[in-house]
Design goal:
Length: 821
């Protein structure tokens, strides 16, 4: 029994757990559905952010962002990619948040930065075992860097200008490729932020230099589409974490920025043990061998003397060889000793002695080796007067800082002026004296080439400044480095605003995605690019341009693009005008063809309409001659009269249409009674309706001064006559109601019937000339198809408008308005 109770209790508890689980899942699902979602870009940059082997986003920045999202109830969608792609994606709104971005004033105009820096960093130089003591050691080397990063901009623009350095910058898509390039000696050094040391990419053979470059602050950046309140929430949460030593911020900092230590006994303990054992073993061996060693000591001394003599000869041979090599190299080689202290020679140099120089160096400074050793200041006197000050300043700076000396200038020897490059590295002696070992190269031809290139660049810039087309230049990654004045005029951006990816701000939003995707593809393919797009200037002016760019290569190495933009706004306007004209001509042609068709139908109809009353008039005129009795004669005369009236109406309609077409209709405005007009028209049509089954009704106001209007009475009668004629014709039985109502500023008149109505697919034909709506019905009824067209023309002449409502089988109502005055 107790066992049974236990089972029942377990079942109950399991059900309860299931119910709770369902409730928790439901609440969680509701939370997830309602949670605000942000797309976060993650590029490989351990330990700050990266995807681990399990495909999970991890790192210091990921920990911070996850903590903020948890507290705010956000959902984060992490996207894996490369830095240079995310740099464009966040501008276009494809991702919402990009962590680990160094602040710069240029980037601040493109992205939204959060206010509080997440962490501070700086750049370090990493190498394969070689220790870097100063920035000058980078000269003439290959340097790897993350493509599109702040490090690349710093290396390409700021550092070489500040230190007069020349080196090759090679960009890589991500940090794993960068570390692999250093390991394979594809580059001499790599430049990365300080966190690279703490990443799994830092190889044991890598060496970090003590040189610190470009301190920076790292932030989160947000897409322009993100609301500013979201960024403020990030700053609020970040401020709380930074001020709490027990927060996720500091726990993550300790986790990611402390290099792993080996477990167990430290390695140096084993090393000491091995050394101690080795010493003991050596001591034992030494004790055992000491006696035999003493015996053979005399013999060994003789052998050593022979070996020393041999070594001496080898050293002399090597010295001879090295001297020959130094003399043969195409550079001047020297070694001088500079005395420590504040005593200076009259030339402005510290006290120096020439320890060694080859003949080429002596020749370069216009002397011999012996003369140079006797007077070490001869090279100072050979320096061009205009370059001497720069030499002394560079020398003093290198001497004070004990760093590599680099100088380029002109030497004058035997009235021959040539450019040279002087480089040397210091070795500091214990007493403070410095030994400089260096080389001097003749760079005269290179300088002449640079001068020609400089003149060519000047010519290019002059031509670009006066060019009637916009000119631009980019790097291999699409980064814009130059635009001419015409380009800025067409785009509405300044020179600085157009650099980098800033030029995209001028592209019309409707063309932006097309232009960016096409430009990225062309850059990858290194193919010429031609595209038409629009600039939207700050004053909202739209300028159409034709952009054309060709790859720029140096020794088959793709370096970027050079291109032009041409203003094609006038051409685009002309194309639009031409298209409109073609559309108008097409419509006019169609209208003319339709008019010809209608006129042909009208002529066929007119021949029938005119022939019918003419035949009646002619026939009954003949019968009138032979009529017997007054009653028969009176009947024939009435028929002739009715057909004559019908024929007169047809001719009158044709004449009215002709006058309307020719613009010969004039409006004659008078004041008259609207009620009187309705009475007379009503009396005219009452006799015509009386013979049929239809009933004619009139709805009018009282005969007062208020029914007086100012308009064209004749044309109003014609309008009412045509509308009532149409109603009588198509209402074989039922009611016909004519009337009017005074509105606030106009009169609304109407003619309604309960006749056959108009099919909806024929509505468009109602006011067309030479048209009758229902061919099956109108074929048996007389009419020209002009009455409603004439009525519409007269209403519009009188300043009103006309419309109708109809339902097939239930009747039609025509309405038209006239102004009161």
């Amino acid at each position: 029994m107790d066992r049974l109770k236990q089972i029942i209790q377990n079942i109950s508890e399991n059900k309860l757990i299931r119910v709770y689980s369902v409730l928790i899942l439901f609440v969680s699902a509701q939370f997830i559905v309602n949670a605000e979602t942000f797309r976060v870009g993650i590029y490989p940059n351990p330990p700050k952010l990266y995807f681990n082997d399990a495909g999970e986003p991890v790192g210091f920045f990921v920990d911070i962002l996850n903590e903020i999202a948890k507290n705010e109830g956000w959902k984060l969608d992490y996207v894996e990619g490369e830095w240079e792609d995310f740099y464009l994606d966040i501008q276009g709104g494809k991702i919402d948040i990009l962590p680990d971005v160094a602040y710069s004033s240029g980037r601040d105009t493109i992205f939204h930065f959060n206010q509080i820096p997440v962490i501070e960093s700086w750049l370090e130089i990493f190498s394969m075992g070689e220790i870097i003591s100063s920035v000058a050691d980078l000269d003439g080397t290959r340097i790897g860097v993350l493509r599109g990063s702040i490090q690349e901009l710093y290396l390409r623009d700021d550092l070489p200008n500040s230190f007069q350095l020349e080196y090759e910058v090679i960009g890589y898509r991500n940090y794993p490729e960068l570390a692999q390039a250093l390991a394979k000696n594809e580059v001499d050094f790599i430049i990365a932020d300080r966190f690279f040391y703490f990443s799994g990419l830092f190889d044991s053979d890598f060496v970090s230099s003590p040189v610190v470059l470009r301190p920076s602050k790292l932030h989160f950046v947000f897409s322009p589409n993100i609301d500013l309140s979201t960024i403020e929430k990030v700053d609020q949460r970040l401020r709380v974490m930074i001020n709490d030593p027990q927060s996720v911020y500091f726990r993550s900092l300790r986790q990611w920025l402390e290099r792993d230590q080996a477990d167990g006994i430290p390695g140096y303990v084993f090393l000491l043990i091995y050394i101690l054992l080795g010493v003991i073993m050596l001591f034992v061996v030494f004790t055992l061998l000491l006696r035999s060693a003493v015996k053979s000591h005399t013999q060994l001394l003789g052998e050593k003397n022979s070996e020393l003599e041999q070594v001496k000869n080898e050293l002399e041979d090597q010295m001879t060889f090295l001297t020959s090599v130094v003399q043969a190299v195409p550079s001047g080689i020297y070694r001088i000793k500079m005395k420590a202290g504040s005593v200076y020679h009259e030339s402005g140099m510290p006290i120096i002695n020439v320890l060694y120089c080859n003949e080429l160096f002596a020749k370069m400074v216009g002397t011999t080796v012996d003369e140079l050793k006797a007077n070490p200041y001869i090279p100072i006197n050979a320096i061009h007067p205009e370059d001497r000050q720069s030499f002394l300043e560079a020398n003093q700076r290198a001497y004070d800082r004990k760093e590599k000396f680099i100088w380029e200038g002109r030497l004058i020897t035997n009235e021959n002026e040539r450019w040279h490059r002087d480089e040397s590295i210091p070795y500091i002696l214990p007493n403070g004296d410095v030994i400089w070992t260096g080389s001097m190269q003749d760079i005269h031809f290179r300088k002449e080439k640079e001068e020609r290139l400089f003149e060519s660049e000047k010519l290019f810039h002059k031509l670009a400044e006066i060019s009637p087309v916009g000119i631009f230049r980019t790097r291999a990654n699409g980064y814009t480095t130059y635009v001419n004045p015409r380009w800025t005029e067409l785009s509405g951006l300044s020179f600085s605003e157009a650099l980098g990816d800033g030029w995209l701000r001028a592209v019309h939003p409707e063309d932006l995605n097309r232009v960016v995707s096409g430009w990225k593809q062309r850059t990858l393919d290194q193919q010429p690019s031609s595209v038409e797009y629009r600039f939207l200037k700050p004053d909202r002016t739209v300028v159409w341009v034709l952009g054309f760019a060709v790859p720029e290569k140096n020794d088959d190495v793709f370096e970027g693009y050079i291109g032009t933009i041409t203003d094609i706004t006038e051409r685009k306007i002309n194309e639009l005008i031409l298209e409109q004209k073609n559309n108008e001509l097409t419509k006019a042609k169609e209208k003319a063809e339709e008019s010809d068709r209608l006129k042909s139908a009208f002529l066929a109809n007119m021949s029938h309409e005119i022939r019918t009353p003419m035949n009646a008039i002619y026939g009954f005129s003949e019968l009138l001659r032979t009529a017997e009795g007054d009653a028969e004669r009176e009947e024939f005369i009435t028929i002739i009269k009715e057909n004559s009236h019908l024929l007169l109406g047809i001719i009158s309609d044709i004449l009215d249409v002709s006058r309307i077409e020719a613009g010969q209709i004039t409006v004659s405005l008078t004041e008259f009674s609207l009620n009187e007009v309705f009475d007379s028209v009503f009396a005219l049509f009452k006799t015509r309706v009386k013979a049929g089954k239809a009933e004619l009704l009139i709805e009018k106001g009282a005969v007062t001064p208020s029914d007086m209007i100012y308009s064209d009475e004749v044309k109003l009668r014609q309008i009412l006559n045509n509308l009532l004629s149409n109603a009588v014709k198509f209402t074989p039985e039922g009611k016909i109601i004519a009337g009017y109502q005074f509105k606030s500023d106009h009169i609304e008149l109407y003619v309604k019937d309960t006749g056959v109505g108009i099919p909806e697919n024929c509505f468009y034909q109602v006011f067309e000339r030479f048209q009758q709506v229902n061919n099956s019905l109108t074929h048996s009824l007389k009419g020209t198809g002009l009455g409603l067209s004439i009525a519409k023309a007269y209403v519009e002449m009188l300043g009103g408008k006309i419309w109708f409502e109809s339902q097939e089988g239930r009747g039609t109502s025509f309405y038209f308005t006239l102004p009161v005055k």
